[in-house]
Description:
The complex is a heterotrimer of chains A (268), B (531) and C (431). By secondary structure, chain A is α/β, with parallel strands linked by helices. Chain A folds into 2 domains: 4-221, Rossmann fold, CATH 3.40.50; 236-268. Chain A has 7 helices and 13 strands. Chain C has 431 residues and is α/β, with parallel strands linked by helices. In chain C, strand 7 (310-313) and strand 8 form a beta hairpin.
Amino acid sequence: MTGLRIIVCAKQVPDPEAPASAVDVDPEKRRVTVKGLMPVINPLDEVALEAALQIKEKYGGKVTVLSVGERLSENVLRKVLAAGADELILVQDEGLDDLDPYSTALLLFKAIEKLGTFDLILTGRESADWGSGQVGLMLAELLGIPAINWVKRIEVVNGAIRAAKVVHGGYDLVEAPLPALLTVTNEFGELRYVSIMALKRARDKPVDAWTLSDVDVDPSTLRKMEVAELFKPRFERMCTIITGKTPEEVGERLAVKLVEELHSLRGR
Amino acid sequence: MSKALVKDKKLPREAYKALEDIVGAEYISEEPVVLDSYRWVWGNEGIFGRRLAPFRPLAVVLPGSVEEVSAIVKVCNRFKIKFRAFSTGFETTALTSKEPMLIIDLKRMNRIIFIDEKNRIALVEPCVSLAEFFYECIKRGLRFNVISGGPSSSVVASSACHMGAGFQQVSGGYQPQNLLAVEWVLPTGEVVRLGSMATDSGWFAPHGPGLNLRAILRGYSGTNGGHGIITKVAVRLAPWFGPPRLEVKGGPPIYHIENPENLKLYFVAFPSLSNLIEALRMISEEQIAMCAHKTPLGGISLSMVTTESNNEALEKMERNKDMIQKACYSILVLLDAFSPKELELKESILKKILEETNGEVIQLSEKERSALLAFNLIALGTFRESFRPGGSFLVAAFNDSTIDAAANTTLVLEDILLRYAKEGKIVFMPGESWLAPIAGGQWCHVEQVYGYDAADPESIKAANEVLACSIKTMAEKKLGIWSDSCLAFDDSVNDIAGPLCFNYHRWIRKIRKMLDPNLVCEASWYTAKDE
Amino acid sequence: MPLEDYRSLIERCVRCSHCKHVPYVALARVDRRFRPVCPSNEKYHFHSWSAGGRTITSYSLMIGELKYSPKVIDVVYQCLMCGACDVSCKIQMDLEPYEVMLELRVKCVEDGQIPVEFIPVIEGLRKDDNMLQKPKSERGKWAEGLNVKKLPEEKAEVVFHAGCRFSFDEGLWSTARKALTIIKEAGVDVGIFGVDEACCGGRAYEMGYQGELVKYMDHNVESWRNAGVKTVVTPCSDCYATFKAWYSRFGRRVQVMHIVEYLERLVREGTIKLTREVPMKVTWHDPCHLGRRSEPYLYSAPGKPYITPEKKIMGIVAYDPPKPWRRGAKGIYDPPRNVLSSIPGLKLVEMHRIREYAWCCGAGGGVTYAYPEFSAWTAKERIKEARAVGAKAIVTACGWCERNFRDAVKDLVDGFEVYDIVDLVWEAMGR
């Protein structure tokens, strides 16, 4: 075996670390915009890339990063090349914003078909923006390959994958034949440090840019995610002074009041 | 109205390589982001409906010497590439074309080669601005007209390539007549030196063989790139009686300028246009003033030029309604004199003239005086009164004629302008027109300026309608020769004006064909038609 | 304020190129060879490298005719954001070229279109709250042993905010220490946040990271309030302009003084006496952020846009309510000159490009990270100008300027010095 062909699916998301004051939530348009901050690679997808790079270091192979979206930033995504990925492929076209998980999975599936053979597909556990956690598993379904989610440790043993899958209070060791798809959890560890020199070198590496027609997808088959409601959580502060003749009385009334409030909150 | 971007047209690779070999890779570009900044210019919105022309130039090249310019032009001939050079220029005539062209940005050619104090001659390159030239000249007791295009306008463009009327022309003469010799890269790439330069005997030749080619070189209001590239001009300088250096204090936007000892500024209002004309005529005849001209916007000029913003100008107009009304017909006079005694004499003459013409001197505050002094000396503030009110401006009546004819010209279009102004689509008020007598007052330049908003399609539409109407009216009333470049956005006006003026349009087209056999000079703002 | 809100102001740019030069009236006192005021245009020649050019770039991007490319990023970011263009433009026009360039950068950041060199800088900022990619734990080391109140554990009326440059650039520590000592010994109730000090956010903002500015603004203003701080004093011009101008742009008013203003007051009141001769011929470099960029926004409020609505009267474009324009006239220009002229034996000679039309030192706008050669070139041009007027040293009051100048004069064989005004005052105090 000359090494594993690994594909990492990475999504570009608005910066999840953005301070509240930079985030603008538009309930009418049901859109979140982040003012004055760069989009980033979904941090959980970065974890998947780290996993891929470690596997490559251990078993040899090639790491391809695949991203789909409407307005992808090469500058943001080139970081994967600086970190050590061998290849970056962008599927970029009009109307690819806010796709539903199935449509995203379909696009990835078509792009992977075009890419040809592979041994392993890694994705993050979920995305930092909508967090549905569905794309990876749907993609495996479309590809007809086994999938293991919430993976925190990976080994390749005799052409099969052995993964530690996080479960409540511990982990399961799961084995699957290759090719397979894994979704990786943050327990795996952060993406390695990327130096400025590596970023500069990555600037000159070629990036493949595909459109919908390149991956043979009819735009009318893609569906947008429907957001039913979007609003900023409201914080309300109410102050009630509890009075009483004796401290004991005040204490008793406070307890009663707290229980009442709790009930009314549950009732909401 | 507004047009979409058409697909970029590129230079043949071989041509690009040839140009790159001439100037070096650093000084040529065909990057869209670079080209975009050369398809945006004042006036584009009138032609294309927006500031960005609907196509990008082929490339931009920045030569550093006449040899490079000549080599570039030869490449253009070899590959039949249309080109136009520009210097500091910011108007349509400098940058807009009918089709993608090669832009030759002369930014790097910005040397003042010499100022000959004794013989009052200077030799300069295209990217020397009038204001910096002015400051260099006054150090030596000389000056050169700064045109109304403002301090950034080019010495070369104003004297040899485009029209150039200014506030100092009552004493400094008409700009093209200050031209003594040129270095001219013909449309074929051949370098020609006119005037005494032809015999290598310096840069001086007021008349005689060679320089009476002036009409061919420059036409009436400039060939605007239609006849190759002027890479050097020698110009005649006038005496300057002020100090070698203006004392400037304070900060932006209106700096304080100490009043030079031998200069004195007057802002004078008249009860009627006829009084004003009489006064201008007399001031010109007496040759007492360095500057004398009717303020372009009447009393509003005072508000616009001397204020820091439109809001402040509007407040001032509201506050001084009576004064604005009174200054509807007003002139600016800047007296200059060799000595305090001469200044005294000139002042007494001016006083006498104003008595006879019912002129009333309006007292100026210190800030107003500073602003108006800068306005007259380096044309600083022409933007404040032309561009700032609406965002952009155009000229309705535009003419050079006798003082009387020029004055009459302003009245013909006033009704049309006022009608549009009443709807708030253009900025115009009664009495608005700039009258600037030229050398001795035998003739006079007139421009009827109106503002419009380049960010408002309605306003742009109105501005265009006014322009079309102006051309029609000027032709119907036979109001003399007028300039193609300032009155219309293309060659069409030549076809209207030509038959009224000795069929000049046919002559210039023939001359153009002769000078430019491959028709490589982009001549939309001269005469693009082939006769 | 998205770029789109500036559309009409963009469309009214007439491409006059005044933004490239010293204001034309002021040119009367400037030698012709120092006429250019825009380092970007001087270095890169084409019109795109100017405020007017970037105005066009933003328009073309906005209407979708221009697509991002590495050259677009160069055009946007090969600019020091020094704001000289803004001063020259607004001599005659009611436009906002600086605001447009700033919003263009914010847009580029939001679209992920930045020089890659910014990535580690911003990551460092987020992790360690400074712009020098130094560990947060080392902040405050500059003040070790100074015996000064430590906020927020203690309370003080005045906080001395050293800023990232003075905190982490060891070569500049002594300046910060002297400045703090002078204030403390003048009897001022002053303290420092030390290791708990955070970046002002200004440099990140000028690179387009508005989100970072807002974050640090909220944090700093809150911290100062909690520590009972009434006045912020800083030796850094970048921080000064950020607190005074940028914070006010987002509706936060901060009582802030640059150390130069403080020194001027102390000298004037006689609290410090400048007695020792400092026989030197120096010139003063006006830091952009102490001068033209430090003017506060007088009419902004939290959540309210910077641009007030347009209103046309007789076709004339005006603003309702009237907008107080920022034109660079109200910067801190005289205090440093007053301080320098009170130093005995010191001769101050002026350069050509001074005050609101000063040539930038080259350290602004993120250029030091992405285009260091441009940054160095700009500094060298300034040193040339200083030498042209016969100065033997350049004095300034900004750590970023000083670092850039010090690096620029390193190779000069015949020696040329760079000083912070604090160093000279200290010297003149006989310390």
